[in-house]
Amino acid sequence: MLKKVGALTAATALTTLLLQAPGEAAPAEAAFVGGSGTSALGTGFGFAVFPVEGEGGKPTGFALFRNTAEGVEERLGGVTCVNVVGNAAIFKIKDVGSEGGTHRQFFVRDNGPTGEGEPTDELSAYGVPSNEAPDKCDKPGDDVKGKAIKEGDVVITAGEE
């Protein structure tokens, strides 16, 4: 399962880069929010989110969450917004697996490399699923906490300043 989710993240990242407009140069270091692994609740996850700099731009990316033991068959869809502050991000997807394509937010925090110890990165569903303001994500703050993931990694890069 974890290998499938990791492969999905890599495939999503590669597809997004390959769909870049011809002749358009890739930024030297673009902002990125991504990860794959297993959450504290046993949910397999994989996501790749590419924020867009400046006003009016729409992020690109995709996310998948699956946990049949908890009754969550799948939550998957394209990213409709992202808000990154330091090492934390909140992103929203349009869940194509739900009736009507409900928008759901997720919180992630990159607490550095796992190394030899337990993973320290955080992940959690955030807020109430809603179709109100699908292109507006909440701002992650120090008061927002996720649960430490069981295995895997979350990576957040801010890109060039």
TrEMBL record:
Annotated region Disordered: the residues are: 109-144
| Record's signal peptide | 1-21
Domain of life, per lineage: Bacteria
Where composition is biased (Basic and acidic residues), the residues are 133-144
Signal among the record's keywords? yes
What keywords is this UniProt entry annotated with?
Signal
Q: What is this protein called?
A: Neocarzinostatin family protein
Q: Which organism is it from?
A: Saccharothrix xinjiangensis
